[in-house]
Amino acid sequence: QPSSELLSAARAAFTNAYAPYSHFKVGAAMRTSGGQIYAGANVENASYGLSRCAEQSAVQAMASAGERGFDELVVYSDASPPASPCGACRQILFEFSPKAQVFCVNTQGDMLAYTVADFLPHAFELERS
Ligand code: THU
């Protein structure tokens, strides 16, 4: 189960979300095997297609810090049931950590648990060098 530190990081990102168009805030926070936490919020844009999901923001932060994977991810929303990653985010998460545990939680305290691979059967991947 996610630590209170990881949950707090996801909740803080949720609070900071920039969602003036959908008003649908999402926070994401991931923990690496070394215990580092990276968080992200959804960041929308007047040119709607440029909006970026919270999970993508968190992956960008993690990778930009030189990390190449995570053990746990919390996706925090006020939806019921809790929001789960969109298809684009599932591919982006799979790139780094198909085995990671994903906890989709909401402000009411509901929690759904999956692995990244659960979300993306028969995923596309390429050999890396
Ligand atoms: N969105 C996320 O940030 N994470 C999810 O898991 C589901 C959807 C955002 C919310 C809103 O900004 C929408 O996707 C725009 O792309």
From TrEMBL:
Query: PROSITE patterns, per this entry?
Result: CYT_DCMP_DEAMINASES_1, CYT_DCMP_DEAMINASES_2
EC id: 3.5.4.5
Q: What class of enzyme is it?
A: hydrolase
Residue positions binding substrate: N42, V43, E44, N45, A46, S47, Y48
**Any idea where the CMP/dCMP-type deaminase domain is?**
1-127
Q: What does this protein do?
A: This enzyme scavenges exogenous and endogenous cytidine and 2'-deoxycytidine for UMP synthesis.
Tell me the protein's name. Cytidine deaminase
Q: Which organism's genome codes for this protein?
A: Deinococcus psychrotolerans
- What lineage is on file? Bacteria, Thermotogati, Deinococcota, Deinococci, Deinococcales
Q: Which gene encodes it?
A: cdd
